[in-house]
Design brief:
The structure holds 3 protein chains of 3 kinds.
Chain A lengths: L13 H20 L1 H4 L4 H19 L6 H15 L4 E3 L2 E3 L7 H23 L4 H14 L1 H14 L16 H7 L4 E2 L2 E2 L2 H18 L17 H13 L6 H43 L5 H17 L11 H4 L2
Antiparallel strand pairs in A: 1-2, 3-4
Helix pairs in contact in A: 1-7, 3-4, 3-5, 4-6, 5-6, 5-7, 5-9, 6-7, 6-9, 9-11, 10-11, 11-12
Chain B lengths: L13 H11 L10 E4 L20 H9 L7 H11 L6 E4 L6 H12 L9 E4 L3 H14 L8 E4 L15 E4 L1 H10 L10 E4 L2 H4 L5 H11 L5 E6 L4 H10 L4 E5 L9 E7 L3 H14 L5 E5 L2 H13 L4 E4 L5 H13 L4 E5 L13 E4 L12 H8 L9 E7 L2 H14 L4 E2 L5 H8 L1
Parallel strand pairs in B: 2-7, 2-8, 3-5, 3-6, 4-5, 6-7, 9-14, 9-15, 10-12, 10-13, 11-12, 13-14
Antiparallel strand pairs in B: 1-8
Helix pairs in contact in B: 1-12, 3-4, 4-5, 6-8
Chain C lengths: L26 H8 L21
Bound molecules: adenosine-5'-diphosphate.
């Protein structure tokens, strides 16, 4: 019988952390499995690795909101690759079954690539989250292992996506710790707060899009590969923890703007209870840790909550793919 | 391939350049230089603000500012905003490169000075072209999204109003000719009631015949108490003379243009034997690194067209920007590119001269920039590849070399900047991956 | 490639289900869902039961 916790916590619940760690462990195992392929000195194998990597990553970089048929083409290409069938890339045919660890290799590359696309592209262009997420969701449905790898990569780059606030351990250097928290650290120093927040926003927006989207051409028989129940979990876990200055307000806003509407439809009154708690009790806690010059993120969140509560509605996000899109 | 037949020679159109740069930009430009402030009254205290809250804005406006995603004032805004919002109003001449937050600053000033209960024009803003006026209008609408009592009207050619109209909108934005007509000929606007007069992009303005004179004529109709604000990205003698005639007793703010540097950029070159090989190298690079958006420069229109075709065949979403396009078409291409509809922008050296590509993470010189005589064009190289600010975005530049001639150009560029350009073997995955980490 | 690789079911119920059966909630969790308000720091991580969306 665990002791009843009072008030806000400083870290995520045991189950959350365990899940996070298991994902990291199995992702590491996956990486180890193709170490031979990664470090090969054999020219032929090296060439194969290059072709596999291209076959995995280039389609992801081509995802855009241009048309549904284009997305389907991309999806089919990735699905074929993950099914061990030959795909043509750059005029050459390649297949993951050409190497015993080929599938692990491409699965991992794909997962990494999806997350990077969120960090780079969604960060500077929010609406890009939807086409990327819908393809990722479809791939996840057919190839669950890729899904787990996506989570592992996402969590590593953005611990707030767990959400997890890694504590500073004895013996960790400040620089190392900043990296663990998701900051880019280079010889020039640590990256500016605005640039860091922008990247984290990109990844959270991608996650928020992922949990609510489903590939429209799938069989749709099973449950969502990683659905809105995770949206509930993420939001509940965030609100159970002590807020972090600037970060918490920024990410809550990003998350709600993208999947608040879907959560509202799914969980109805229970969702509004979350929003009320956020507005009445949690927001003042955020404000208490906010210093001068950080008011932007809090104001945006506050404004969003107020206007949603006023009209008792959370609007669908801008850039969502319409049924019209899928006919194009 | 040295086909010079497609060589473009479009004129260096300042207004078009300014517009395209506005469209491609989604961020503040990094600046490390200090702002220089020359106060009209050196004895009055010099205010600067580090946060928007200190400005005591109307709540609707503060909300609008934050809704735009701003967190804190930019360098130039730190000084310019307190001056522009002061009572009594002060005149200002401000110069800083584009992308440093001037537009956002004067829009905020106009919105702050408007009395929404008065249903007549109180702020005038003149811009060099119709398209630029529309861009500023968009900023006004965004920043004023919680201040719906304030209305905006465009004084631009084509916007014809019935004679005798009395405008009710508080803000009028437009081009000098139409604005002058609206004040003088049609009397839609009563110049004596104007509280803020903004002249944007003064350097672009004076490049157009007649604009200088029209602007001055508008200015002379205004009251002495009207606040005059003038902005410019550059400050040559001619701009300065014009500014002094336009703005009496000014405060002056200057922010030196940030030098572009190659310090934060990783530069590489790839050896190829033909344009087909260059294309293959490009594909390999794409497979190895995450490129949110890339811009690829070719020497001729012909090569650009060919490359765009090849990339499309590989499934890439490609946009092609070329010199024969009208400004509106080019603007449309850039807008789509910024929205991410297309991820690769292929363009010719000439066509994209002067476009700021700081937003783009990877720049590829499919052909190296050379001038008409085939000599290395160092200035273009620097502008295209260089980045500003020490903690600015990191960038990656890849140069394709396909002949003795182009190797020679590359070596000269390298010597000129005294910065090593590393060789990259695009058949070696490990090597390409390393460069992007 | 088949089957997810992690075993921890995070959000209760059968993996991937959007709601939690009431039988799988602790007494405290159930109370949180029944009450008009959530208690700060006590929001259940499991999604609400399907029959408790309106309270
Ligand atoms: N204080 C600020 N914080 C963040 N972004 C800003 C700020 N001020 C302006 N921006 C953004 O930076 C870009 C350039 O600003 P702008 O006002 O157009 O500059 P300029 O008029 O000097 O070219 C625009 O995208 C604008 O939205």
């Amino acid at each position: 019988e665990k002791a009843r916790k009072k008030g806000l916590q400083t870290k995520a619940e045991e189950t959350t952390l365990k899940w996070y760690q298991e994902l990291q462990i199995s992702a590491n195992q996956c990486t180890q499995s193709f170490e031979g392929l990664n470090n090969t000195k054999d020219l032929q194998t090296k060439k194969l690795r290059m072709e596999l990597q291209k076959a995995a990553t280039i389609p992801v970089s081509q995802i855009s909101s241009i048309s549904g048929s284009k997305l389907k083409e991309i999806f089919d290409k990735i699905d074929k690759l993950l099914s061990g069938k030959p795909v043509v890339s750059g005029g050459k045919s390649v297949s993951a079954s050409q190497h015993p660890n080929g599938l692990d290799f491409v699965s991992n590359k794909l997962a990494e690539k999806f997350v990077k696309q969120g960090e780079e592209e969604v960060a500077s262009h929010h609406e890009a989250a939807f086409p990327i997420a819908v393809v990722a969701s479809g791939i996840w449905e057919l190839h669950p292992k890729v899904g787990d790898l996506i989570l592992a990569h996402l969590h590593k780059k953005c611990p707030y996506a767990v959400p997890h606030y890694p504590p500073m351990k004895d013996g960790t250097s400040v620089e190392e710790y900043q990296k663990i928290l998701g900051y880019r650290v280079e010889d020039g120093g640590v990256e500016a707060q605005d640039s860091f927040l922008k990247r984290m926003s990109g990844m959270i927006r991608l996650y928020a899009a992922l949990i609510q989207l489903r590939w429209p051409y799938g069989a749709k028989r099973g449950p969502d590969p990683h659905g809105l129940n995770h949206g509930w979990r993420w939001l509940a876990q965030m609100l159970n923890m002590e807020p972090l200055a600037d970060i918490t307000a920024t990410l809550l806003f990003d998350f709600l703007e993208v999947c608040g509407n879907a959560l509202m439809i799914q969980y109805q009154t229970q969702f509004w209870k979350l929003i009320l708690l956020l507005q009445e009790t949690y927001l003042p806690r955020i404000e208490a840790v906010t210093s001068e010059g950080q008011a932007g993120s809090v104001t945006r969140l506050k404004q969003f909550l107020q206007s949603s509560l006023r009209v008792r509605n959370m609007h669908p996000p801008k850039g969502q793919l319409s049924s019209h899109f899928w006919k194009s | 391939d040295g086909d010079k037949t497609g060589e473009e020679d479009d004129k260096d159109d300042k207004a078009a350049q300014s517009l395209l740069n506005k469209l491609i930009r989604s961020n503040l430009v990094n600046t490390t230089n200090q702002v220089e402030v020359l106060q009209r009254d050196p004895n009055s205290p010099l205010y600067s603000v580090k946060s928007f809250e200190e400005l005591r804005l109307k709540p609707q406006l503060l909300q609008g500012v934050y809704a735009m995603g701003f967190n804190r004032p930019s360098k130039i805004q730190e000084n310019a905003l307190p001056m522009m919002l002061a009572e009594p109003p002060q005149n200002l001449i401000a110069q800083s490169q584009s992308g440093t937050g001037k537009t956002a600053a004067f829009v905020l000033a106009m919105l702050s000075h408007v009395n929404p209960n008065n249903k007549f024009p109180q702020c005038l803003c003149v811009s060099p072209t119709y398209e630029l006026a529309l861009q500023t209008g968009k900023v006004i609408e965004q920043m004023g999204q919680y201040y719906s009592e304030v209305k905006l009207v465009y004084a631009i050619r084509g916007n014809k109003l019935p004679r005798g109209t009395q405008l009710e909108e508080q803000i009028v934005i437009g081009t000098p000719g139409t604005m002058l007509d609206w004040c003088l000929k049609f009397k839609f606007i009563d110049p004596k009631k104007i509280k803020v007069f903004v002249l944007d992009e003064a350097d672009v303005m004076i490049a157009t015949q007649g604009h200088q004179d029209q602007s001055l004529r508008i200015q002379r109709m205004l009251n002495k108490q009207c606040q005059m604000l003038l902005f410019s990205a550059t400050f040559e003698e001619t701009v300065w003379n014009f500014a002094q005639r336009m703005v009496p007793e000014p405060n002056i703010i200057k922010l030196k243009r940030e030098e572009e540097t190659l310090d934060t950029i990783k530069q590489y070159y790839v050896l190829c034997n033909s344009k087909e090989e260059k294309f293959m190298a490009l594909c390999n690079i794409y497979g190895a690194i995450t490129i949110a958006q890339a811009m690829i420069f070719c020497h001729t229109r012909k090569t650009a067209g060919w490359l765009a075709g090849e990339l499309s065949r590989e499934g890439h979403q490609v946009a092609l920007l070329s010199g024969e396009m009208q400004v509106e078409q080019r603007a449309c291409v850039i807008d789509r590119f910024r929205e991410g509809k297309e991820k690769v922008l292929v363009t010719t050296n000439v066509c994209a001269r002067g476009i700021d590509v700081e937003q783009v993470s990877v720049v590829i010189n499919f052909d190296l920039p050379v001038d008409r005589d085939g000599n290395p064009d160092n200035e273009t190289y620097l502008h295209r590849i260089g980045r500003t600010g020490r903690f600015g975005k990191r960038g990656l530049a890849i140069n394709m070399v396909d002949s003795k001639f182009s190797m020679n150009v590359l070596t000269k560029i390298q010597d000129h900047f005294n910065k090593k350009i590393e060789k990259l073997d695009t058949d070696d995955l490990d090597e390409i991956e390393k460069i992007s980490s | 490639v088949s089957g997810g690789i992690t075993k921890t079911t995070l959000t209760g119920g059968s993996a991937g289900s959007l709601f939690t059966p009431q039988s799988e909630l602790t007494a405290e969790e159930l109370k949180e869902f029944e009450n008009k308000r959530f208690t700060l720091g006590q929001i259940p991580l499991k999604p609400p039961p399907a029959e408790m969306l309106v309270v």
